[in-house]
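Lecture 7 notes: from sequence to structure.

We start with a single chain of 377 residues. Read the sequence below before looking at the structure.
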Amino acid sequence: MFVTQFLDVLIGLAFVYLLLSLVASSVLEAVAGLTARRARGLKQAIEGLLSGGSETIEPAIKCVTEEVLDHALIRSLRNRPNLLQRKTRLFAAGPSYIPARTFATALVDVLRQSPLPREPSMVSTLSTEQLDDGHLKQTLRTLNKNAGGDPEKVRLSIERWYEDAMDRFSGQFKRYSQLWLFMIGVVIAASLNVDSVWLAQRLWQDPTLRESVVTQARAYAEQHPQPPASLKLDEMQKTLKNELPMPIGWPSEKGQNSFLIVVGWFITGVAVSFGAPIWFDGLGLLLSVRASGPKPTAATSTNGLPVTDDGTTTDFERSLGKVDIMDLQTVLGLRGKRVTGQIDGPTRDAIMDYQDKHGLPQTGKLTQELLLAIMDV
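Now the structure, written as tokens:
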């Protein structure tokens, strides 16, 4: 009895946090899209890569960065400027994602054609005699030496160098997103009076409310085999207030302590910062435990696609690096063990969900245009 009651409380909280996280993610994506946060972060990451992480970016490095981003191969990857960017020009509409191979090709081409003083033969051997002393010169010289002057090996070395930097950038961007999710979560919690302490107390004391929440959570999980990409605020309010109803909203209920209300808001904000995929997986796990054990894992994904590659991987998909695919999986909402760096069954399911949401043919296949649209956050 005690264990079931405890599980029901956790299920109720996880369900609320999932809905709140979906709303917060929608707000964050809208803000990030308007301000081109990822595009600006990508530019800063490239400057840091070329300068060796120096706090002061030399004019020559800024020049190389601008030329790389303005290269024809990368210019085509730019996001279309939104209304805010067109009217205010505060946020540049640069690319939010650059494949490693494209970056390496553009960088080598820039180093060949740039008006900065360099030897014309620099592309084939990456001779850096005419470059100013600094991190970029030392790095290119080392890559060239290790590759034995082989242009193809040099390009592959640059790709790996870039992928390592993008791996760090992805981690930084995730931490940035987590901080924003926390702040958005606190604002939503305060606006709707989503007090985690009070919610837990009411769920513990009210068996009818617990049973209602568990039933609703189970139905939600069955209807959504993959975590939804977003949720509107009014839909969340309808679910929590009308269909359950949960003890949230203003005015506060009798018995709520003012200090504990603020603590409850803070806890809610922390929970939202973990992101919707974490709570989606957690909710599924709790429901499985409550049902006396997890459900057996199917050999195929929810859309009938095999979990492992069946030989239908496209040339473009094969051209992507592991870090590129991990970034894609993270943006699509996959978390934990689902972030494999391989285009597997769950990844194709998530791609099909995205295509379905945006009115695209549900092929489950990744093209360059689709990848750029997905990564446009």
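The first helix runs from residue 2 to 35. Keep this in mind for problem set 3.
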